[in-house]
TrEMBL record:
It is an enzyme of class 4 (lyase). Keywords: Cytoplasm, Lyase. This is Ethylmalonyl-CoA decarboxylase. Its EC number is 4.1.1.94. The lineage of its organism: Eukaryota, Metazoa, Chordata, Craniata, Vertebrata. It is found in: Cytoplasm, Cytosol.
Length: 300
């Protein structure tokens, strides 16, 4: 079969692969009434979530509510969802750094918002809204990094588990305080924590609300690097760190994250099929042809 026809077949199946992007975890068939909960969240104002998409393909998402230790108000939950949707459509994107304003990460839900969302139905609806957002964040075809400075508490601890990697500054902590609030994680943090560090370590952190300092986080696999207090500052350190994992063409970087995200979630044979489809999107592509024409050697 002519190579070009074969590639066309691979590419057409790869196109189908793209069509499955950004299906929400919860929809109306699960009783999720998105517009209804968004209208309620919109009344809980304060703070903001800002997204910068840079020319080099690395975006920065800032959780900005320093007067409340970057706690999420209702409007910030809506803005986070909108930023993640924007990133889902950013075809040039390769990486994402999530961080908090004024050198602290996030202290979870704004307790004023929590007190305003009194009935259990609305609480569960808010939980579904946030889980939809954080599941899409985790599945973005970008390498994502949570830059943890200061405190990542409650929902803030859950948010950092939705990123592929966590970089912690020397004085920072991640703390699942839910049990002290008479709660369990609801933003998907328990499920992702078990994926990251295993059920034994996850149960220890959730049942003790332990302050997880950087060295222990590194030891149990929750953190990937402890950032030294370099002269450039933590955000610049994080930019340097992510740059070493996002070199080269955007489509190849995105394909790498897609094959790993597929293997992380799918059954073995389904993941193999997805890997084949993603392979078809880069086989014979510009980066592949350039490497072949250069006679690339791997002895650096
Ligand atoms: C599924 C989980 C999810 C949910 O249930 O929806 C949650 O995340 S529940 C919330 C979990 N988070 C908390 O319980 C954090 C509560 N705050 C603290 O423990 C402390 O503030 C701190 C984060 C450890 C920082 O302590 P400290 O350095 O002493 O500063 P302050 O306490 O003075 O905080 C400064 C300022 O910020 C306000 N603040 C902090 N966190 C929140 C929050 N989550 N919601 C609302 N406001 C918050 C704090 O009240 C102070 O404000 P003022 O008192 O007006 O100065």
């Amino acid at each position: 079969m002519a190579l070009s026809i074969w590639r066309c077949m691979l590419n057409s199946s790869a196109a189908r692969c793209h069509l499955h992007r950004s299906l929400s975890l919860y929809n109306s068939s699960h009783g999720f009434k998105e517009e209804e909960i968004k209208n309620k969240l919109a009344l809980l104002t304060g703070g903001s979530v800002a997204l910068i998409k840079r020319e080099n393909g690395i975006a920065e998402l800032c959780i900005d509510n320093p007067a409340r230790m970057n706690a999420f108000t209702g409007t910030m939950m809506i803005e986070l969802s909108e930023c993640v949707s924007d990133l889902e459509n950013w075809q040039e994107g390769k990486g994402l750094i999530v961080y908090g304003a004024e050198n602290t990460f996030c202290s979870g839900s704004d307790l004023n918002a929590v007190k305003a969302v009194t009935n259990p139905q609305d609480g569960v609806m808010m939980c579904m809204f946030i889980q939809n957002t954080l599941t899409k964040l985790q599945r973005l075809p970008l390498i994502s990094v949570a830059l943890v400075q200061g405190k990542a508490l409650g929902g803030g601890a859950e948010l950092c588990t939705a990123c592929d990697f966590r970089l912690m500054t020397e004085d920072s902590e991640i703390r699942f305080v839910h049990k002290h609030m008479g709660l369990v994680p609801g933003w998907g943090g328990a499920t992702r924590l078990i994926q990251l560090i295993g059920s034994r370590h996850a149960l220890k952190l959730l049942s003790s609300a332990l302050r997880v300092h950087p060295k222990y986080a590194l030891n149990i696999g929750l953190a990937d690097e402890i950032l030294s207090s370099g002269t450039d500052g933590p955000l610049a350190e994080a930019q340097k760190w992510i740059a070493s994992y996002t070199k080269g063409a955007a489509d190849v970087n995105r394909a790498v994250k897609k094959v790993v995200a597929s293997g992380r979630e799918k059954l073995f044979e389904d993941s193999l099929r997805t890997e084949k489809e993603i392979f078809g999107t880069v086989w014979g592509g510009p980066a592949n042809m350039q490497a072949l024409s250069k006679g690339t050697k791997h002895n650096e």
